[in-house]
User: Fold these one by one.
Assistant:
Number 1:
Amino acid sequence: MSQKVAIITGASSGLGLHTAKKLFATGNYKLVLACRDEIKTKNAIDEISRFDPSKNVDSLKFLKLDLNNQKSILSFVEEFKKDFDGLDILINNAGIMRHPPQEQ
């Protein structure tokens, strides 16, 4: 059975990281951790691989993504298309905070 491809945004901490650990442990997924901070995400990949050392760490990939930045989104899509033929699951976990309009 071939692995399914899953993108998890905001996977470097919190619910995204927990979800990545659970999916990684099944061995059924190639996981794309789509996050802004490369260092935090590399640390998350280390943590995920320690969660179940029997699984192949090559099924974990970091791709930089800042959902507040249109160029980052387009770059992410291009990089993803280079490495994968399709997407099976999207877990859109990243939080975006926008400043509300201020009253004058």
Note: The longest helix spans residues 38-51.
Number 2:
Amino acid sequence: MKALFVIDVQSDFIKDNSKLPTAIKNYIENTDYTLIVISYYKNTTSTSFYRYINCKEGLNNGPEIIVPELRSISKPHTIIEKITYSIFKTDTIMPLLIEHNINEIDFCGTDTDACVLASMFEGFDLGYKCNLLQDLTESGSMDLSTHESALKIIKRNIDPSVKSLES
């Protein structure tokens, strides 16, 4: 069975002119998955982000930080709060995957070079077939090469078939 993980498509990470939220919503509404998981990042004073890289943003984040387009999808989905790069560090994700007999996961969201990449590596290490939906990922970095570099890393190490949805 196959799951879709939508990683951190939240208002504090998405660029103002991004078409990503609408593209992901349209994709979800036109594609069938056994399980759809939408994650958002919440910072706390105990996270490595707060303690080691002095990131103080996101301390008050809750599910409302998810972009409106994804909060309004009509298909059943699960929302998961995470405090690390990888979605697999949450206590709730593995029971969901086991309950739904998931063996393959499609990933999309942001940032390609951070949370998407970390989640894909961990999912792969845990034995899941991990696929990147390239057209449904982006990086919030002003340096566009970080997104391209992450795509190369994913293609080399996890998903050699990374391709555009249009191909």
Note: The mean pLDDT is 93.
